[in-house]
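Side project, low priority. Logging it here so it doesn't get lost.
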Amino acid sequence: MEVKNLKTYFNIEEGLVTAVDDVDFELSARETLAIVGESGSGKSVTSLSILRLIKEPGKIVGGNIIYLGKDILKMKEKEIRSIRGNEISMIFQEPMTSLNPVFTVGRQISEVIMIHQKLKKPEAMKKAIELIKLVNIPNPDKCVDNYPHQLSGGMKQRIMIAIALACNPKILIADEPTTALDVTIQSQILNLMKELKEKLGTAIILVTHDLGVVAQLSDNIMVMYAGKAVEYGPTLDIFKNPLHPYTEGLLNSIPKIDEELDRLKIIRGTVPSPFQLPKGCKFSTRCDYVMDICKEQEPEYITLDNGRKVRCWKVTGDEQR
């Protein structure tokens, strides 16, 4: 998949919100791409845009999402429905509320299989049991008849993963897959996603604000701030040498075991209101390296010689002037 110049805006009473503005990235087979940033940075809207799940007053107003040579944004509704949940699946936030409380988990898994793979109900239920076993839930024969309220938070999240994997998707989008889970269950879910990527060859887009999860699972990182991608590159390179001040701030805010700190390091200030974005660089009001040009002119998203991308005057000033 290749995403080019993606723009998703929300036209509401208070004004125009540029939730995703000119975002680019690529995703290869078996790759895990992490999209990171604070709440409101545009991570989830980016993932929903890929599946064309943006509802009014939101609208995808520009860009291309090229999947296997075809532009998803130009597909007819029937064509995108054949891809959504089949070739590209999504694990949504909040497993507590994403499952339908009035249907058994077996029915919810088998429904996806019957719609996309055209199997009859007995065959679909048999495959549902196999999927429940695949995501390491004990007693899958019994679990298939359980309702969501009978399962723990971790088990519900595994059911969400089973639904997403029901049709062996080429791409799995995981939106905050470990939110609201305790540390032990988080680790189990992440290990499960690793195993499934290796077994099924699935590419993963991991949407998260947890850099510990990113370090454990991702191959590449795209950092977002105020709707824009500000840095992109291999996970190890970014952790060792963050180029954008915002990425540097995110990494510095993680407490380290070998350091004694009186106070945690923070990024000063707050994320600007989407209705009052600063002129020039969107991070200029919080940046420790801010220059005059940062307040006046927005930097371009530049690809460096080593293949990494960054949007910052401090790093790319000479190339952009």
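Brief comment: The mean pLDDT is 90.
Revisit when time allows.
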